[in-house]
Amino acid sequence: MATHHPSPAAPADEFTYGSVVDKIHQLYTQPQHATATSAWLERFQQSPQAWPVAQQILQQPMNTPMQQQAAFFAAQTIAVLAQAGFQFAKESFPALRTSLLQLTLALHASPPIIVRQLCLAICALVIFCADQMDQLVQGVITAVAASAEGHDVLLEILIALPEELFNRKIAIDPDRRAAARHKILQETNVALNAAATIFQAPVDPQVAPHRQAKSLRVLSSWLDAHVKSHEIDPPPNSQPVRTSPLAREMADAPLFRFALEGIRASHETLLRPSGDVCVAVLSLMREVTPHPDTDRAIVLAIAEALAQGGEKMKMGSNIDACLVACEVLSALAREHFPYLYYYHEPSRPLLDRLADLATHFMSAVGSRGIGESPWEVATSALGVWSHLLDHQTPQLHEMAIGIAAGGAQVIPLVSTDRSAVRQELRELLKPLFTKMVSVLMEVLRYPKACETQQDFQFTLFHQFRDECATLLTESCRLVGYTHALNTVGQQLERFKQEGAGQGVVLPPWEALEGCLFVLTAVAPRAPAGEDNVIPQTLEALPSLPYPSSGVAAVLLRQTASRLVYFTSGYIGLMPQLFAPIYALLTEQLMPFLGQAQVSDASLRESGMHVCVCAIQALCSSGQEIMTVRGSEDILRALKPLAVLIMSTYVDCEEKGTLVSSAGTLISHLSRPKLEETHYHLVKPLADLVRESLAGRRSSLVDDVRHFCTALKSVRSDLAGVCCGAGAAPHPPMPKGEEANGVSEAQRNAHPTLIVLEKEWPLVERLFAEHGSSEAIMEPVCQAITQIISDTREQAMDSSLFHPVLRVMGSSFRNTPTCFHLGALRSIVGMFGRSFDPPVVHGLRDLLQLLAEVALSQRQPTTGAQPAPEVTQYLRHPDLVGLSIDCFNQGLVLSHPALAKEVLNAQWFPALLRFVFEMLPDCAHPKLGAVMLLFLARLDAWLADEKYVTRLPHFRVSAETFRAEEAGARQAASRLILQEGGLVVVIQVLLKVIATTAIDIPQGVGITSSALIPLLDRPEGKEVFLDALKQLPDALLPPEQKQHFYDAALDDRLRHTRDFNDLLLRTAQHCHAQAKKTQFSAA
Predict the structure, then answer these.
(1) CB neighbours of 728 closer than 8 A, spacing ≥ 6?
(2) In this predicted model, what pLDDT tens digit does every residue of 1032-1046 receive, in sequence order?
(3) Is 260 in contact with 276 (CB distance < 8 Å)?
(4) pLDDT by residue (tens digit) across 829-847?
(5) With the CA atoms of 992, 998, 999 and 1001 taken in that order, what torsion angle do they form, in degrees rounded to the nearest 10?
(6) Closest by Cα among 853, 837, 834 to 952
(7) I need a surface site. Which of 108, 252, 446, 476 has the fewest CB within 10 A?
């Protein structure tokens, strides 16, 4: 939110009962006017007439849909006003709460969504009253529960109140919010007793299940609030760990016992709230100090209820019931399973029953037994096993040891005992996971129906399989990888023997594909080459019986590519595997997948994506093989890649990946071959761009992307090229080259720069003809930036450096895009440390151009004063922000030469005034952040000269560095300290704190960095006090201004993190105050 100004005064007759109802009807019936109607209704909600008109609407009948729509909007308006604190005095909150309670009781039979909004308003008022009244919850209960019709209203309030304690829409400062939260949560037992009383009260049998469900929701809501409170509010200093009697009281709580019955009976209406109660209880137990005996009783009660109810869920088809069971199982498995296996033996069969239940839900995808969409159930069951795996972490080991010791606290034992506990746990869980892994290997197979079933959900099944693969990979830590490998090896051997008989028997493709998929999951845990299954399978990949058509043909080839991807590191070390598998991917699998005909196009696309990733991984992992092999072998490997790159069935993104892979191969060539081959890769793609520019092709954007990818594809870290200060020097220049006009700089030029120079006319043409196209400028600017970054030192000596600045700068002046700016910002950051005058002057002129463009973005006004939303007067706020961010790169302390040139430039004060004008009321978060950083970078030059910097990349003497640094400090002092500049800067920063700091990312921290150097100066304190007095008292009262001033000038506070906390608390207070004033009349 930017500045908070009161709503403009509206005519007295604009917001009447009739006009508001008409606008509400128009909102629902005339969507073409929805924007204007919504704006009118928002102005109504901020007007003084909102409260009485909303009450009047609620007093009307609600028989028709239109009347109910109007009533809902009126109730919502009252909730919004209540959360904002109304425009009433603080002392009137108790009376307002009473009147709202009476109104809600009178409307108890209205639609639930209307009653819910009124209950939210009551909750907001209860929170506002926390510092004026005691027994807040009891007061509400006394006022509402006297009549039977108030029971449902009371339950709604008790459900909503703990949730609203964390609602940021309630305009209350953080300290008051925390105090209200603490005070209200102290009455938890009062709320729960009231809910239990209503739960046990006689009621119509048709209404009873729903009222009982609400009572259970009250319990889960208050328990969740305690969990959140423990996460937000730190414990008192005297209590290193938390205690909560509430968690221990659950064992005998009637509502908790009834929740257990709801799970045990698998009651349709009560199961969901019962499960929420159990999850909340278990979550609260995780946040507080363990109390083993009581905690174990609760865990066993939940586990036994779930085991009994789970048997009924297995026989049913209710997906929601299965999801509830999985959520409770996950909460148990997260930390509480030690209570089942570190006590006496009878509880361990219970663990087996729960594990079987999780396995059953995991295998739900294998049948239609659980509804029509079992994916969510199976995925949730996978999470249970993932939590069980976490029990091998040190934290849960310590907890288990404490439970085994029977102490009231976690008692770390000696290492031998800890090792024994770990081994005991592994022996207990290993058979459970061994059984689960066997089921998992069956579950992740494609069902046979996927070939014929038209509506088979491949996307969901693939997501489920990915999670299965993750679980299988991590399970190998417990059960080892040999179990899965042996199982797969036996199946593959059986397929081989069946195929070796007299009649050719092909294995079922889904079984073969499942074996390959299991290997992809086990490979990350299996040491490369230490087993026989994976190497033998890789050797057999080229000769597998791949189907020739249909879904099976695509899926089996996709999984074969996936196996190559996950084992590419091993393949890259084995020359006898690398060549045939590389040929398999590039000459067989990829061409087939690209031209396969399947009903679901996403299958072909995903298959091609996996295959392309496998090719890329193989090219990267084969560095040693490529280094040993000669240029002819590398060029031979490039041929099928070139065919794929120029093919029409490979889409844009995958073609770019293939181009990058070709660049990786090229990088292994010797220097003369590298430059020649790189240009041969770039040239055909550049010709396609020229054809598109001439109108002979209609794919200019894609062609440009591939051309740019090829330009930057050569990896400098692999190429034998001098790319940095640590690179080996080139051999002496051969005789004759000097005479042929080949300079030392030309001979040492990076091959990529040479290729770029050859195609520079095409790049200039793209800037000239398509500089306004972001789709074109994005790849072009990114390619140039990466090339210059990779060839940093050589780029400065290249004849392209200044043309790049000139072309990109002039293109940006004519048609600015954020991609121009991103490239220019990177270039300024890379070369700003330079002390070379031509480079520094070139960057200075570039920044001048950016300043001119930023200032030109201001919209002309019509003579009236600008509105608070100053970004409305900028044509492109994002471009202005990125332009200023380029200056942030130029003003850093490690760029003294460039900073001195910029700060002494005649055009810089105009940019500084522009920032002063725009920043205080800036409603654009990114723009506000970069302008704040601009001031912080500028103010940093005023700080004490304690800054010690590393010498830049380009070596200069310390004397030169200090001289330039002194010049920059002198220029900054002249700008800020003379002509009243210090007053303006501090005024701007204080206004930012009071209005927009919270809405700007890292706004408080950046403001702190900008303010500290100014307050360190003697004249800064007096200016700071004067500027502070000018803030409106409505935002910051005089006594808080004085406190803020005293704390800000405390030297012990100002250079610590506490200074940021001080600014944040002040900004939050101003933010809350401003939010209240926006509902006041003008």
Answers:
(1) 722
(2) 877 788 888 888 888
(3) no
(4) 888 888 888 888 888 888 8
(5) 100
(6) 834
(7) 252
Contact 947, 962 (CB under 8 A): no
Which residues lie below 8 Å from residue 254, measured CB to CB, with a gap of 6+? Answer: 196, 199, 200
Residue 955 backbone dihedrals phi, psi, to 5 degrees: -65, 130
Q: How far apart are CA 189 and CA 249, in angstroms?
A: 10
Task: Give the C-alpha separation, 702 to 689, whole Å.
Answer: 9
For 449-504, what is the HEC assignment?
A: HHHCCCCCCHHHHHHHHHHHHHHHHHHHHHHCCHHHHHHHHHHHHHHHHHHCCCCC
Contact 861, 873 (CB under 8 A): yes
Are the beta carbons of 696 and 643 closer than 8 angstroms?
no
Angle between helices 700-711 and 652-666 (to 10 degrees): 20
Whole-number pLDDT of residue 261: 92
| Nearest partner of 367 among 313, 435, 447, 437, judged by Cα | 447
What's the rounded Cα separation, in Å, for the pair 830 and 817? 20
Give the gyration radius of the chain's Cα atoms: 35
DSSP 90-132: GGGHHHHHHHHHHHHHHTTTS-HHHHHHHHHHHHHHHHHGGGT
What DSSP character marks residue 314? H
The CA distance from 589 to 546, in Å, is 10
Q: Which two tokens stand for residue 188?
A: 């938890």
Residues found in the chain: 1082
* 747 pLDDT higher than 70: no
Name which of 283-292, 408-417, 781-790 the model is least confident about. Answer: 408-417
| Biggest distance spanned by C-alpha atoms of the chain | 108
Q: Tell me how far the alpha carbon of residue 20 is from its chain's centroid.
A: 40
Measuring CA to CA, how many Å separate 815 from each of 774, 812, 820, 853, 930? 10, 5, 9, 10, 22
The Cα–Cα gap between 148 and 130 comes to 27
Q: Where are the alpha helices (DSSP H) in 186-287?
A: 188-200, 208-232, 245-249, 254-265, 271-287
Residue 858 structure tokens: 């201001």
Confidence of residue 737 (pLDDT cuts 50, 70, 90): very low
What is the residue type of 1059?
F
Domain range annotation of the chain: 237-445, 480-668, 671-720+749-815
**pTM score over 0.90:** no
- Compute the distance between CA of residue 242 and CA of residue 248 in angstroms, rounded to an integer: 13
Structure tokens at 367: 């049948």
Token digits of residue 690: 């020229």
**How does residue 4 score in pLDDT terms, banded at 50, 70 and 90?**
very low
- Rounded CA separation 1033/1043 (Å): 14
Helix axes 877-890, 896-903, angle to 10 degrees: 120
Q: Are 961 and 949 in contact (CB under 8 A)?
A: yes
Cβ-defined contacts of 80-84 (< 8 Å, 24+): 80/45, 81/45, 81/50, 81/51, 81/54, 81/121, 81/1079, 82/120, 82/121, 82/122, 82/124, 82/125, 83/120, 83/121, 83/124, 83/167, 83/169, 83/170, 83/171, 84/171, 84/1075, 84/1076, 84/1078, 84/1079
Between CA 109 and CA 116, with CA 110 as vertex, the angle to 5 degrees is 110
Helix, strand, or coil (residue 906): coil
**Of residues 984, 875, 965, 1002, the one with CA closest to residue 919:** 984
Burial class (CB in 10 A: 0-12, 13-18, 19+), 336: buried
Burial of residue 943, with CB atoms counted within 10 A of its CB: 0-12 exposed, 13-18 middle, 19 or more buried: middle
